[in-house]
Amino acid sequence: MEGKQKIGLVCDEGGDLPKELIEKNQITIIPFKIDLGEMKNIYQKIREAERQRIKSFVKTSQPSPGDFLFAFKEKLKRFEKVICITITSKHSGTYNSAIQAKNFLEANSKNRIEIFDSLSGSAGEGLLILKAASLIKKGLKIKEILRDLKESISKTHLIFMLEDPKWLEASGRLPSLVVAWLRGMQKIGVRPLLGVKKGEIKPIGIKKGVKDIATALFKEFETKLSKLKSNGIIKVAITHADNLKEAIELKEMVQNLKNTEISFINLIGNILGGLTGPGALALTWQESC
């Protein structure tokens, strides 16, 4: 393996990383499959579907084992070993596709690949990917990196609010009874707070008297930070569903806090955007280990 770099990264696109960070860290991204027709992104597709009163309009699928297999083979030409980080296995079969692809390889290649379930999505997965990239640059061994990533899962938190929860119901990610509860809360001026817990999207609280999503998320973040015992730097990422205005407002609020560092702001990708619908805003942070 003379002349090869030590460890390369292969990830699905669920981490919502900006293009510049993907290129900077030499990350191979495996796209999800989605039929957008002539639309630029999922949000245009949703708005057009609503205009035409179409209930079901998006066909999506996870990357196939073949997609991962091709990426693994190409990556192994340049790197001694590969870490593959995927979106949570609780809501996608992407992790299983990566596992199948690894098992298709010959033993000497198979032993050079590690598959890691982020148990998160959007910037939760994204921050874990950036963590892995940072540890690779520091020269850590693959087992040390995987151990650190595993510890970081419980220190990586994603919270978000929706403009309308109906898209989560349509995708089967939330039961209709939960969605009915969420809508009922919004009608009486109470905003449900959603989050990712152990790899699953769940309601995690309510916020009363919410004037805007950005402020509500920021106040929740402030409350969580006040309970932390560590004084280390908190990595923050903000993702939005075609809601850049509130994303920037949230960024400006977070920037005024001590010991926080904003890693990136980006649009929630097409697959996750199909679940949240337009207008959603997410705040993700990662405590230092």
Write the layout of secondary structure elements.
Elements: E1 5-12, H1 19-24, E2 27-30, E3 33-34, H2 42-51, E4 60-61, H3 65-76, E5 79-86, H4 94-104, H5 107-110, E6 113-117, H6 122-137, H7 142-153, E7 156-161, H8 166-170, H9 176-187, E8 190-197, E9 200-208, H10 213-226, E10 234-240, H11 244-255, E11 260-267, H12 270-276, E12 281-286
Helix pairs in contact: 3-4, 6-7, 10-11
Uncertain spans? none
Helix content: 40-55%
Strands of the largest sheet, in order across it? 9-8-7-12-10-11
Tally the structural domains: 2
In CATH, the topology of the largest domain is named Rossmann fold
What sequence of helices (H) and strands (E) makes up the elements? EHEEHEHEHHEHHEHHEEHEHEHE
Separate helix tally:
12
Basic shape: globular
Task: Write down the CATH class of the largest domain.
Answer: Alpha Beta
Mean pLDDT: 90
Radius of gyration: 19 Å
Structural class: alpha/beta
Main sheet characteristics: 6 strands, mixed
What fraction of the residues are assigned to beta strands by DSSP?
25-35%
Architecture of the largest domain in CATH? 3-Layer(aba) Sandwich
Number of strands: 12
Kindly report how far apart the N and C termini lie.
32 Å
How would you concisely characterize the structure shown here?
The protein is of the alpha/beta class. It has helices spanning 19-24, 42-51, 65-76, 94-104, 107-110, 122-137, 142-153, 166-170, 176-187, 213-226, 244-255, 270-276, and strands at residues 5-12, 27-30, 33-34, 60-61, 79-86, 113-117, 156-161, 190-197, 200-208, 234-240, 260-267, 281-286.
